[in-house]
Design a protein that fits this description.
2 domains, globular
């Protein structure tokens, strides 16, 4: 019996996730390195920076919390900033329940830890496209999508800490984050409701960019979800 014929559906799903997640190392790696550089410049030790990345694995909230720390904000405000920026993870978790809610507790805990943007968006697209996937296959795909990114996030954070002083500002690595989100979100805009939600999110986010602690982002996300839901309802009524 050949190796290929011995593969289980879950194993095949894992390798599919690994393949789909691999391209995102091109943006996740420099993004993690930038965090290591900035955190070191802010005065954090190697242990503190690495603990930050290993425990959180969420670049946007890490940067938000770090900025508040640089401004000597209280612990409460640092936590509030990180939670505000990362509230989208609660939305991610809620949308994963129909697909992974029946998984064993340890698998759900694993998904909760690895539930950041890339594996979530890749997985939810896969689940919607292939509704017949079993729960073990869905879990395997999710973990596979996270596999190329997670260890590299830790490694490149370390590289940023160690080699930060020699990285020139001329590299302009801060452009990585918006490029990464565009690459993730753009393929998911497949309907009028998606397009309307995206347009409202961008418009409101730009208008409220000056609000503190990610508040503008939260308002933009809320209005985008409401817009998408209203457009979906309108389309359903029109079809009837």
């Amino acid at each position: 019996m050949t190796t290929s014929t011995m593969k289980t559906p879950a194993t095949s799903a894992y390798w599919a996730g690994l393949r789909d997640g691999a391209p995102f190392i091109l943006v996740a790696a420099p993004f993690a390195m930038v965090f290591g550089v900035i955190a070191t410049d802010a005065g954090l030790t190697l242990a503190q920076v690495m603990g930050f990345s290993v425990l959180v694995i969420a670049g946007a909230s890490q940067f938000a919390a770090l900025q508040m720390m640089v401004e000597n904000a209280s612990i409460a405000f640092v936590l509030l900033a990180a939670l505000a920026v990362n509230l989208r993870m609660a939305m991610y978790s809620a949308s994963l329940v129909p697909y992974l809610g029946a998984a064993p507790l340890w698998q759900r805990a694993c998904v909760a830890y690895l539930n950041f943007d890339q594996p979530y968006l890749l997985s939810i697209s896969r689940y919607e496209a292939l509704p017949a996937m079993s729960v073990p296959e869905r879990f395997a795909y999710f973990v596979g999508a996270a596999t190329p990114i997670t260890p590299l996030w830790f490694l490149m954070t370390y590289v940023g800490v160690v080699a930060g002083k020699s990285i020139s500002d001329a590299w302009a690595l801060d452009f990585i984050m918006p490029i990464m989100f565009l690459a993730l979100v753009a393929p998911m805009v497949k309907s009028l409701a998606h397009a309307a939600a995206a347009a409202v999110s961008v418009s409101v986010g730009v208008l409220l960019v000056g609000l503190p602690s990610g508040t503008g982002l939260l308002i933009a996300a809320g209005t985008a979800m409401l817009t998408g839901a209203l457009v979906e309802v309108w389309l359903e009524k029109r079809a009837q």
